Amino acid sequence: MSGLGARILDWLGFGSRDHAVHGHDHGSGAHGHTHGVIDATIATTDRGIWAIKWSFVILAITAAMQMVVVVLSSSVALLADTIHNIGDATTAIPLWIAFILARRKPSPTFTYGLGRVEDLAGIVIVVIILFSAIVAGYEAIERLINPRLVTHLGWLTAAGIVGFLGNEAVAVFRIRVGREINSAALVADGYHARTDGLTSLAVVIGALGVWLGFPLADPIVGLLITLAIFGIVWQSARSVLTRMLDGIEPGVIGEIRHAAAHVPGARLVDAKARWIGHRLHADIAIAVEESLPVSEAKKITTALEAELFEHMPALAAANIRFASADAGHRHGHAHGEHDGHRH
Prior knowledge:
Transmembrane segments: 56-80, 86-102, 123-141, 153-175, 196-214, 220-237
Protein name: Cation diffusion facilitator family transporter
Order of helices and strands: HEEHHHHHHHHEEHEE
InterPro entries: Cation_efflux, Cation_efflux_CTD, Cation_efflux_CTD_sf, Cation_efflux_TM, Cation_efflux_TMD_sf, CDF_Transporter
CATH topology of the largest domain: Alpha-lytic protease prodomain-like
CATH architecture of the largest domain: Up-down Bundle
Distance between the termini: 29 Å
Helix content: 55-70%
Domain Cation efflux protein cytoplasmic: 253-314
Membrane topology: Multi-pass membrane protein
């Protein structure tokens, strides 16, 4: 295949890539074991970039088609929807940059890598959505004060339907891929696109109101769309800030407890977890019988590690340590961080 053809396929996400295989030894002696696995970070970020590229293309085409009808019809409702679709397409840019940066290997400064840049991208996305809401709101209020004749109602209706279909396609795409790679930013953006689709249908309602002889229906719908966008701003900001403050879903700790319950001899004392990008890192303290030999205690931690990765595909690393039963005292032995990757 020609170099240009290969680059095109690579851009679309279908090109071949050499996924690095790495092995690392955990511990020594009887506990020593080696994992040789494909680094899941490469696969997931490639998949994320692929989703973002196609989302951008679909929304850009949708917004361009709607903008033509905005010029023809002078509809402020469609203008608000188009501004939001343009803003939504623009959100692909910070997400794209974030996924690319997340692929960089850890460094002496960023020892966990740059996965957290996805949270920063989420903040940028919230700001973009907020800006689009302010612009759309201003235009809607201005049109309420200074009404203008809305024409080409048939085209206006068609543009609203196109906006709904384009956004729903992007929503399904982003949510599906976001769940595959455990990216909160991508899933949130998918639900955001789904809400956009519903606001696009509101444009059709506005066109119907104008057709029935109520010209203010168009700017009123534009204002309602603006309020919906502000709602998305609040929802997205809350989700992103939760991740940035190391918040996790309640079910995560429940899964850790469930995994620990499957390991005889291990009693969970404490469990903490946080997301770094779309990868989960856990710190776990367990209590075992103090009379157990060190080799047997290590077998328990190995079994627990296996259960954790089995129950939690998004888990990237588990740091397991021994603690006293009352969690008030640590025993001096620490089970080093086991870095495992899942597809």
